[in-house]
Design goal:
By secondary structure, this protein is of the alpha+beta class. It contains 17 helices and 14 strands. The strands form five sheets. A four-stranded mixed sheet has the order 11-14-13-12, with helices on one face. A three-stranded antiparallel sheet has the order 1-2-3, covered by helices on one side. A three-stranded antiparallel sheet has the order 6-7-8, with helices on one face.
Length: 495
């Protein structure tokens, strides 16, 4: 078993290196909430005045530095009694001494699943979840953001069943982008001029684009080098992406070649050109795509950034382009996953694209996806009101319909065909009646038709054909939204 290596830097900050993972750091001499200066370099710490003792030797060696880093952070916030409870939770994560380094993350997840399904107290489970989230956000080795987002974050404590699932995609600022947010985000990307962005803003755009196009994790973006961008003989741009989740293999040696858009390829080339402008010289392809840049000094360093820097640069881009909602790599990665699922992509294919070596996290996500259909009607209605103009056609009686166009028919209740109206245009139509007609100014809708029943029937047909979860993307099309809006307004007597 490879042991962590650590050393104090000149500022007395503990630097920890575990295998090939990015280095992390913590203050080994923090001051606790009670005013006591702790010495986390020791094998045990006695918390005063309560005399509660933290025994780091009782924590699995692979996680001792994680635990010390957590205590260094948490001692400013929590009481000594709470810190002792946290210490006991770290002890629950018992990792075998002979386990391979690349299997530690999976073992931790296995332990967490057992603990979360056990009869342990809500308090213990909450602490365990809180610690895991912190380790993810700090980029500590062996703690996986997908496991947190798709499993731990979704568990409810204290329900009748003891646990349950939230709909992750409905949690503001944490789940996938909403339909409206995604539409605004894409429109913003299409309108922005990358050349006008500052270096940090451009880095943020590159990072977000990697997550949008490929569902890449922060760690994968951090490790990208310009040499990873390649152009095939057939003119296809590809990116060599680190595989972070392959069971039984060292993470730093496994890559996958992924095709990318020309837009992303151009952004990467622009990023390299920006670095060369700053330095006033050409750079080699082994530079990190997201290199350390100090804006105040206009200084660029051939060095991989820390994981917290990804959050900073993406936020710089978001503020620069005026997005008033949270956009992060993690949210875009979830958006990438949820859209694949909504389109009916097989789970094995999603797992491959999301870089999972097994299906456990995705299985939870798939099982959650059916609950989206329960909210579908509300989503369709609210989205339609925001993105569509008022109905531009006419509501007429059958006798007053123009004779220029043909009748428009649609299935209603029990799949009986009804004439919903007439086309007021004399020119041939290339659209797809009857659905497209509700979004057309030429529609002369008959006032004696139950249009709500017609639209409901069309929606149910899509759900039956594709399944509730997989029908989501289809039902988000503007024609369905327009039909829903028309039916609601007609039903309320507003037309």
């Amino acid at each position: 078993m490879a042991m962590p290596t650590k050393k104090l830097d000149k500022n007395e900050i503990m630097l920890v290196q575990i295998d090939q993972h990015p280095q992390f750091s913590y203050d080994p001499y923090p001051v606790s909430q009670s005013g006591q200066q702790l010495d986390l370099t020791q094998s045990k710490v006695v918390l005063e005045p309560e005399r509660e003792t933290l025994f780091f030797e009782k924590i699995s060696p692979q996680l001792r530095e994680h635990a010390r880093a957590w205590i260094s952070y948490a001692c400013h916030i929590y009481s000594n009694y709470a810190l002792h409870s946290h210490h006991e939770c770290w002890r629950l994560l018992s990792i075998p001494d002979d386990i391979a380094a690349e299997d530690i993350a999976e073992k931790i997840q296995e332990i967490y699943r057992e603990l979360m399904s056990s009869t342990r107290s809500v308090s213990t489970k909450s602490i365990l979840r809180m610690m895991y989230k912190w380790c993810v956000e700090e980029g500590l080795p062996h703690f996986d953001e997908d496991f947190y987002d798709y499993y731990l974050a979704s568990i409810k404590f204290g329900t009748a069943e003891g646990k349950g699932l939230d709909v992750i995609m409905e949690i503001p600022d944490r789940g996938p982008l909403t339909i409206k947010e995604e539409r605004i985000f894409i429109s913003t990307l299409n309108s922005v001029l990358p050349e006008t962005l500052t270096t940090h803003e451009l880095q943020g755009l590159v990072s977000l684009k990697c997550a949008q196009v490929l569902g890449m994790r922060n760690i994968q973006v951090m490790r990208l080098k310009f040499s990873d961008l390649q152009l095939s003989d057939k003119g296809v741009y590809t990116l060599k992406v680190l595989r972070a989740k392959q069971r039984g293999q060292a993470n730093n040696n496994v890559y996958k070649i992924r095709p990318i858009t020309k837009t992303l390829a151009k952004l990467l080339s622009l990023m390299k050109a920006r670095y060369e402008d700053i330095l006033g010289t050409k750079i080699t392809d082994d530079w990190p795509v997201i290199s350390e840049y100090y804006s105040l000094r206009d200084e660029l360093v051939k060095q991989q950034v820390k994981i917290t820097k990804i959050t900073y640069i993406t936020n710089q881009f978001r503020m620069a382009v005026g997005l008033d909602f949270k956009v992060t790599n993690r949210r875009l990665r979830k958006t990438f996953c949820s859209r694949l699922i909504a389109k009916g992509t097989p789970m094995t294919v999603v797992a491959e694209l999301m870089d999972h070596s097994d299906l456990q996290q995705l299985d939870v996500y798939y099982r959650q996806s059916h609950t989206v259909a329960k909210k579908l009607d509300d989503v369709l209605r609210s989205e339609a009101m925001d993105i569509l103009d008022a109905f531009a056609g006419k509501v007429v009686t059958p006798d007053n319909a123009s004779k220029r166009g043909q009748g428009i028919f649609a299935p209603s209740k029990n799949l009986n065909l009804v004439q919903i109206g007439s086309c007021g245009s004399a020119t041939p139509c290339s659209l797809q009646p009857p659905l497209s007609c509700y979004n057309c100014s030429s529609l002369e809708a008959f006032e004696d038709v139950d249009h709500k029943a017609v639209v409901d029937t069309m929606v149910e047909e899509v759900k039956t054909a594709f399944g509730d979860a997989h029908a989501i993307n289809i039902l988000q099309h503007k024609n369905f939204l327009a039909a829903r809006k028309f039916a609601d307004m007609f039903d309320r007597g507003e037309l």
